[in-house]
Amino acid sequence: MFVLRGIAVSLTFFVLLYCVLSLIVVSGWRYLRFSRSASAQGQANLLFLARVFPLLASAFITLVLVVPSFVLREPRSIHEDMAVPLVLGIGCLLLFALGAFRVVAALTRTSRVVADWLKEANALDAGVTAPTFRANGTPPLTLVGVCSPRVLVSEATVALLNRDELRVAVRHEIAHMRSRDNLKKLFLYCSPFPGMASLESAWQEAAELAADDGAVESICDALDLATALIKLSRLMPVRNTPAFTMALVNGHGSVRGRVERLLAWEESKAHPLQTRWRYALPPLLATILCTITIYGDVLTQTHRITEWLVR
Q1: What is the pLDDT of residues 3-13, one digit of tens each?
Q2: Where are the alpha helices (DSSP H) in the chain?
Q3: What is the pTM of this model?
Q4: Reduced 3-state DSSP string for 210-253
Q5: d(CA 105, CA 255)
Q6: C-alpha distances in angstroms, 157 versus 92, 101, 179, 181, 263?
Q7: What digits encode the pLDDT tens for the residues 99-158?
Q8: Are 221 and 215 in contact (CB under 8 A)?
């Protein structure tokens, strides 16, 4: 009974905290402010962090505070009304089940479509060191796969683009590969909450700009990528692609805006200053030390909060 009560209380705390934090993110993410010097990759990272923050924060607090506080502070023999924790705990399990179903369904659909694309695919030398294939029936240029990503290029794209344009376009998809954007999409699918679609769309737009930046190393590359975008946007209408894919031309973001941004490319902005993480180490270590010092008191207060929640 003690274990069941602990599981119910932990799940209750998780689902309540997850919903509260998700509501805060849904209503407040548009107020995020980016500095003018912030790179597209930095903006994409911040938007993704905002999206997964409710899940990560809820899981961390539950595992680090709620579970230990219950094990160490809760009396073994006590009779409490468990109706509310059980109902909310079941709601939390349903939330987990919904997230798992979304992931499995999206992976299944993606795998089925990609398998059809790869039936008659052949290796393609695009001048880059990444698994690249040419195939029929695919979008013009797409990154597929979560664990083993590959770049697929349609036959029409190979015929339409010259070698330099194709090379820099494939490098755009490789930038997505290095950022593990398809894996990030998996995290989005496993943490459902109403109203998050606009934040997810904003993240994907920023991810496309970041991939543009990652593909371009010179003004010539910028012009080649801009030309490729224009050609491929005219090749065929934009269509929905499977969940765990990243297409060069898609419905997220304006092709015109991306082209204008590439035409205004400047070398000084192409390589933003790297964050010096060593400056963050002293305050991080101080925070950890402080947390360890007062951990017992924090567990006591956490236990009081959970007691109040389940009454």
Answers
A1: 888 899 999 99
A2: 2-28, 40-61, 67-73, 83-118, 155-160, 163-179, 181-189, 197-215, 219-235, 255-263, 267-270, 281-293, 295-309
A3: 0.89
A4: HHHHHHCCCHHHHHHHHHHHHHHHHHCCCCCCCCCEEECCCCCC
A5: 30
A6: 46, 35, 24, 23, 22
A7: 999 999 999 999 999 999 988 889 988 888 788 999 888 888 999 989 889 999 999 999
A8: yes
